[in-house]
């Protein structure tokens, strides 16, 4: 995963309101929620929700699809897994290199 993408996604999630919206969608599961349901759960004005949702969509963290007259929002679970995986894959990476260098001496 590209570090620039990771930085933009983390920046988007670094806002308390967007993180709350994202967690709401993650908890909703694969069925997602309509914009109205998200609005009810997070208690935001429609224009404020739209602003924050656009940022999450632009960063590939949320997907929106039309279903009749409703706009359904889903967390992009592969993007979430990639983001978390990127961070966990880096865990202690330099420590391993230090151990290999020490063993070679």
Automatic annotation (TrEMBL):
Domain of life: Bacteria
Keywords: DNA-binding, Transcription, Transcription regulation
InterPro entries (alphabetical): ArsR-like_HTH, HTH_ArsR_DNA-bd_dom, Metal_resp_trans_reg, WH-like_DNA-bd_sf, WH_DNA-bd_sf
Domain HTH arsR-type, residue spans: 1-95
PANTHER family: ARSENICAL RESISTANCE OPERON REPRESSOR ARSR-RELATED
Protein name: Metalloregulator ArsR/SmtB family transcription factor
Taxonomy of the source species: Bacteria, Pseudomonadati, Pseudomonadota, Alphaproteobacteria, Rhodobacterales
